[in-house]
Structures are given as C-alpha cells and as structure tokens.
Amino acid sequence: MTLSLYGLREWLGATVVCAGLSIIAFAMGMSWLVPLILLIWIALLLFFRDPLGRKPESMLEEDLVCPADGHISAVERLEDHEAIGGPAVVVRIFLSVLDVHINRAPCSGTVRELRYRPGQHLDARSEESARVNESNLIMMTRDDGTPIGIRQVSGAIARRIVCPLKPGDRLTRAARFGMIKFGSTTELIVPDRGPERTIVHVAKGDRVRGAINTLVTLHDEA
Questions:
Q1: pLDDT on residue 32
Q2: Residues near 110 by beta carbon (within 8 Å), at least 6 away in sequence
Q3: pTM of the model as a whole
Q4: At the top level of CATH, which class does the domain 63-218 belong to?
Q5: Per-residue confidence (pLDDT) for residue 27, from 0 to 100
C-alpha cells in the first residue's frame, strides 16, 4: 500500500500542521495530546491510501470492473442517458470516508468527452444527491466501440473532484484516473441491451472493491 499523489497537498499539509501542533503541545507541557494528534494524522493519511497489486477477477473484455471501493447504493435501468445516447444501466457506488477513494477505469478504451457540472453538496447517501450534487461525467468508448460512462459525484464533505483526464486519453482496465476527496459516489453507466445481454452481478447493499470485482457483463448486441 502507498499514498496517492492525488492527495499530495492534503497529506503534506497535515504533516506540517500536526508536527507543529506536537511541538506546541510539548512546549506547553501537554505531551498527552501528541498521541491524539498522531492518530488524526494517521487517519488522514489512510484516507489517501492507494492499495497496490489489485487485479480484476476477470480480464474478459465483456466484464466491466468496479470503478471504486464501497457499497452498491442503487442499480437503475433508464430509458435514456447522455453518456450512452440511449437506454442505460446505472450502477451506483457509495464511498464512505473509510473507503479507498481512488477511481479506476472499468475497461480499456478512449476518453471522448468530460462534462463537469457544479451543484449542491448533499449527503452522498441520499438518492437526491445523485441528481443534484456537483459531478463529473467521463464518457469513454470501449475498444469495440461501446459507449461507457463513469460519473464522479461529490458528497456533503467532499468538495473536490479530481480528474486529470482529457478527451483523447487512453485508459486501460483498472487504471487509476482520479478520486473524489472524502465521502462521495461513483457511477458506472453502460448500455442496456436487455437482461440477457447486460448482466448485472451486484445488488443494492453489496460490498465491492475497485479494480477487482466485476459489476456488469456486457455482451454484444444481437
């Protein structure tokens, strides 16, 4: 396990602040505060952890890997979605402050467009937050031409979506592409080709791990 560079500003800042507070605590004869400061520092560093050595449980092209750690908060079938340009299945993942917040690519492909939308910062556990909160939609095209969407949604605490991607960038399956700082939501959006060709392997409440679990199997159109 290592620390994500996406959190460089935060964990370096926390190190400086906590070191300063520890020095002040010693100087004021309040050394008992140092262990508490250390625990706060460790907790912040753990938020920006980036587990190494993760591999998808399936490398089949039709199997889409989970883009984030967390719990499935919803599985929806929509008549139309802008990322797909038609019927879509949306698998929504809620990330608590205790989860790894690195986002991963569900498949190999090319970024075709990004759509950032400012918005509110409601609790990411609420259904309304997925509709009105600040978000960033990454629209990519899989190597076989299939449109795929990944949507980063901020939460009540999270106020910064990190996504260094730009149109034309190439992503490989399970590759890191950004994060949302503190509690948030990540959505995987795929074409709805019917229950026999768009097979969802998870249900609301399931625990999932980014870059490992298969969320959806997407078979070719008939």
A1: 85
A2: 140, 141, 168, 169, 170, 171
A3: 0.88
A4: mainly beta
A5: 84
DSSP single-letter state for residue 6: G
Q: CA 135 to CA 116: how far, in whole Å?
A: 6
Residue with tokens 């259904």: 127
| 184 exposure class (CB count in 10 Å sphere: 0-12, 13-18, 19+) | buried
- According to the model, what pLDDT value does residue 192 have? 97
Name the nearest CA neighbour of 92 among 116, 71, 62, 113.
71
Model pLDDT, residue 1: 64
Degrees to nearest 5, angle at CA 21 with 20 and 24:
90
Report which of 110, 103, 114 is spatially closest to residue 137, judged by C-alpha positions: 114
Burial label for 46, CB within 10 Å (0-12, 13-18, 19+), is middle
Instruction: Yes or no: say if 96 and 210 are a contact pair by the CB < 8 Å rule.
Output: no
* Catalytic residue status for 154: no
Distances in whole angstroms, Cα of residue 106 to Cα of each of 54, 66, 83, 203: 13, 6, 14, 18
Indicate which residue of 4, 22, 135, 184 is catalytic: 184
Mean pLDDT split into 10-residue runs, the chain, 222 residues: 73 82 85 87 81 89 95 95 96 90 95 90 68 90 95 75 94 92 87 95 96 95 67
Instruction: Return the domain boundaries, the chain.
Output: 2-50, 63-218
Burial track 109-123 (b if 16+ CB lie within 10 A, e otherwise): bebeeeeeeeeeebe
